[in-house]
């Protein structure tokens, strides 16, 4: 793999820039078991076979289901596989997400993820969201303590603005940010620029802007036709080309869809195409 295809998280974890998000291997509403658990485990094994070595998950996916399936399918883990998980959200029901980032709860969440994933240390542990009821410094301090105990290798944050990122970095080294970002939503551009400046990874969630891409103007379809690709592949290729720290983690429950997404890494967009696509932001 060339340097442009990989990124070093925290300076010591070399990952393929196109990873895999393991949210959709759960049931409807990211709740409960998937309809086809065997198929989900087969998909996870195919992800690793294809050379993807960054899998993103969370304790709230299911809840617990995604982490359990990852361990069932892949443990003992192949050398070089990086599993990034998260804590801080609770799940009252299907499609519902609430924040609880109290320090004592985050520590318990991490311990539970270690047990489910059958790990002694989590490579990248992410604060899933900032809790308005808890100072971010308190939440991050708890993760820093877990890092000091060697239960976490690297700390990361999700759904954070520039100020919150700086507050977190004042407590402990932060290696990546996971914010919403895609062709039609550049609201985290300022955070992305901070990541570029300091060499932090940026994992865009909702990278395919599901639904929004179909409403984009003709530029996307035109580029896709020119490359014999799908709009989703072009959207992923644009993200990869937009920034060297971008680490898209598209998710799916289908092996065929996974294979299709992976082909995006082979697309090379021209400067004029990339510029035209950048104008699609809403």
Major sheet: arrangement of strands: 3-4-5-8-9-10-11
Q: Give a short account of the largest sheet.
A: 7 strands, parallel
Low-confidence stretches: none
Mean pLDDT: 95
Give the H and E element order: EEEHEHEEEHEHEHEHEHHHH
Class per helix and strand makeup: alpha/beta
Give the distance, in angstroms, between the N- and C-terminal Cα atoms.
Answer: 34 Å
What is the CATH architecture term? Answer: Alpha-Beta Barrel
The geometry reads as globular
Q: For the record, what is the CATH homologous superfamily label?
A: NADP-dependent oxidoreductase domain
Report the top-level CATH class.
Answer: Alpha Beta
How many structural domains are formed by the residues? 1
Determine the strand fraction and express it as a percent band: 15-25%
Q: Say how many strands there are.
A: 11
Q: Indicate the percent of residues in helices.
A: 25-40%
Stated plainly, the CATH topology is called TIM Barrel
């Amino acid at each position: 793999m060339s340097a442009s295809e990989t990124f070093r998280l925290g300076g010591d974890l070399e990952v393929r820039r196109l990873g895999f998000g393991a949210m959709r291997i759960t049931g409807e509403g990211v709740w409960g078991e998937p309809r086809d658990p065997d198929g989900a485990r087969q998909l996870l094994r195919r992800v690793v076979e294809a050379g993807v070595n960054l899998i993103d998950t969370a304790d709230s996916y299911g809840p617990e289901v995604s982490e359990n399936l990852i361990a069932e399918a892949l443990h003992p883990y192949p050398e070089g596989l990086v599993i990034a998980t998260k804590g801080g959200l609770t799940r009252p029901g299907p499609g519902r997400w609430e924040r609880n980032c109290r320090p004592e709860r985050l520590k318990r969440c991490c311990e539970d993820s270690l047990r489910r994933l059958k790990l002694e240390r989590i490579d990248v542990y992410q604060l899933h969201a900032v809790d308005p009821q808890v100072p971010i410094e308190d939440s991050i301090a708890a993760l820093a303590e877990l890092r000091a105990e060697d239960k976490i290798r690297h700390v990361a944050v999700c759904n954070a603005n520039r100020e919150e990122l700086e507050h977190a970095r004042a407590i402990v080294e932060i290696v990546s940010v996971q914010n919403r970002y895609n062709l039609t939503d550049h609201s985290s551009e300022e955070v992305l620029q901070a990541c570029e400046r300091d060499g932090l990874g940026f994992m865009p969630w909702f990278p395919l802007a599901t639904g929004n891409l179909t409403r984009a103007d003709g530029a996307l379809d035109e580029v896709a036709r020119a490359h014999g690709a799908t709009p989703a592949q072009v959207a992923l290729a644009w993200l990869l080309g937009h920034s060297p720290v971008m680490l898209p983690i598209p998710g799916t429950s289908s092996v065929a869809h996974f294979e299709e997404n992976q082909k995006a890494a082979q697309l090379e967009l021209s400067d004029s195409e990339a510029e035209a696509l950048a104008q699609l932001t809403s």
